[in-house]
Amino acid sequence: MKARAFDYRRVASVAEALDAYAACEGEARFLAGGQSLLPALNLRLDAPDLLIDIGRIESLRGIAIEGDRLRIGALTRHAETLASPLIAEHAPLLTQAAAYMAHPAIRNLGTMGGSLALSDPASELPACMRALGAEFEITGRDGTRTVAADDFFLDLFENVIEPGEMLTAVRVPLPVPGTRMRFEEIARRRGDYALVGLAAHLVLTGETVESARLAFCSVGPTPMRAPTAEAALAGRPLDAAAIAEATAALADDLAPDEDEGFSAAARMHLARVLLGRVLPALREQETGEMAA
Ligand SMILES: Cc1cc2nc3c(=O)[nH]c(=O)nc-3n(C[C@H](O)[C@H](O)[C@H](O)COP(=O)(O)OP(=O)(O)OC[C@H]3O[C@@H](n4cnc5c(N)ncnc54)[C@H](O)[C@@H]3O)c2cc1C
Description:
The chain is α+β, with helices and mostly antiparallel strands. It has twelve helices and 14 strands. The strands form four sheets. Strands 4-5-10-6-7 form a five-stranded antiparallel beta sheet. A four-stranded antiparallel beta sheet has the order 11-12-13-14, with helices on both faces. The chain is globular, with a radius of gyration of 19 Å. Flavin-adenine dinucleotide (FAD) binds next to strand 2, helix 2, helix 7 and strand 10.
């Protein structure tokens, strides 16, 4: 099948992209890496009148420390996330997660902004952003607003970006002393979307867990935090009893669906297996040894 006919416009700035969107009388879409949008057009799951190619907007590129945050431009390719020394040092969860995403050809084109804007609950980066406590910069013709990752994802492929707004960057808090983080997933084959994935972010003081942020992929309509499991860990040593309690608590937190011949019970089982693997690995991890 081929895509329906559409107009195409390449733009050089965010302002030009937003103006082009506003001027379009039909449906417009921003085109970033095209790794999700172009297959959707070819399958006629989407049929916009205008594609606004944002792939050459320089201001959407770049990875830099700004104050106590790591700012990552929306056009950062997955391959750049994987290779960035700044991300490996300050947000290695993203380095680890990018290694699980698709294959090199897709990672060379797919972008951070595209993945987050798409808001596929099976994707790795949305879960990582919730675990990291990231903020999203969303720009419209009236200015830029900041939204916490926890408030960004609304439902399956739905988020708070309004028509005509663009995700321009994410800001990830720099890790405080005692931070440990780890991403793991279980998939049928390497590069497939996760059957279940887990982005885990802990802050420890000595043996004690000060705070825990656990975010799963593929177990609900959005990337899912696990507040009951997080509460089971907070304020206690990361020992076998705490890990067992957190793992049992997942039943209260996650809502996997039956799909692709994979039962909700099996997905819940895999979520427990992952948490049971990741927490002991974090316990063994030395602070300052977070790199992928
Ligand atoms: C075979 C295959 C396997 C894949 N496997 C995985 C995987 O394992 N894990 C995974 O996470 N992903 C996977 N992907 C998806 C891939 O990571 C995409 O790159 C990503 O989902 C979308 O990024 P993109 O830059 O290509 O966005 P595009 O396809 O260009 O756009 C996607 C959507 O986001 C919108 N958009 C893009 N950028 C912005 C922006 N800055 N602001 C607002 N809206 C925007 C577009 O209008 C469109 O609606 C796979 C894709 C393929 C084809």
